[in-house]
Amino acid sequence: MLTIATGNKAVAAAVKQAHPSVVAAYPITPQTEIIEQVANFVARKEIATEYIPVESEHSAMAACIGASVTGVRTFTATSSHGLLYMHEMLHWAAGARLPIVMANVNRALGPGWNTWAEHTDAFSQRDTGWLQVYVGTVQEAYDVTLMAFRIAEDERVLLPVMVNLDGFSLSHIMQSLDTVDLGDFIPPIRLPHAIDVNNPMGYGPMTGPADYFKFRWDIERSMRDARDVIRETEEEFARRFGRKYGPTEDYQCEDADVVVVSMGTLGKEAEVAVDILRKEGIKAGSMRLRWFRPFPDLDLKGKEVVVIDRDYSFGFGGVVAASIKAKTGIECYNVIAGLGGQEVTYDDIADFVRNRKIGEEMWFGVSE
After folding, report:
1. Global confidence as pTM
2. CATH code: domain of residue 279
3. Average pLDDT over residues 172-186
4. CA distance 270 to 285
5. Distance (Å, rounded) from C-alpha 346 to C-alpha 268?
6. 224 and 124 share a domain?
7. 152 with 291, same domain?
8. Same domain, 68 and 177
9. Is residue 15 classed as helix, strand or coil in its secondary structure?
10. Closest CA to 284 of 355, 345, 236, 335
11. Are residue 150 and residue 280 in the same domain, yes or no?
């Protein structure tokens, strides 16, 4: 069904169709609308979901963990400092191999206090064992949320998935949304290690040096296996519903001499910039990185690379640029832009390409 929706409402629509048994959440700007919509669905008895309004984001993830370990489908949503408050429990969710799905509406971290888009909040959680995917449109927010449940609950994965969408520039933007008749696309959940109240057992969480590393390796093995599961899920989604996705969204990259790598909504601005540059005779392309964990293999050989990082690791550099260099050995022109919702237009991105200095870092709007 074709309609108009915000990114937040698109996520909520997908959650409704996935029918989670438990949703626990504490509202925080700018994701509040996701939970408001889900709470309305529950109040109107449109979904048979137990909605738990908790006292903090830490408690929200703890409640999801408690529910998920019994073998039921769970969901939550958060943003920014809410995500940071969950940090301890994110490790527990992944370590317990629980397929929780969470929407994170990317927002800058304080101080100073800022409610606009930035990716540092989610990147700061990149080593917790969660799969991370970043979307660029309202339609993608809906589609990916549906796929996230199937990916997380696949027995080759059984890891939580974080669906990231830019605060306000996507969470509150109205775009067209084509919902689907889901059918059996998301199979019933089966958690092999679910707690069975009819067969009570004792559990000892303490793990010594002889075994701890084996659990860490098991998470990594599943993260690697997730690559195939993601690909299979996206291919099945395309077969059923006609919309194709991959680890990246490439635009005119095949014959490009220079490729702009970005994430989230900046990827769509980059496509317009590419069109402008092509008219000037500059063979540019855009690569929007969708999956950050597991990090994909990128085809950038023989191309100059301009990376726009809407994040920063202090004392180290842009996280995306550093990741690309570590994985490929390719030097980039790293532009730090869009922090805290800083406006970055397609004209700005075109200038980044025109003025590129490969191997250097530039902070947009800062004169050193």
Report:
1. 0.98
2. 3.40.50.920
3. 98
4. 8
5. 9
6. yes
7. no
8. yes
9. helix
10. 355
11. no
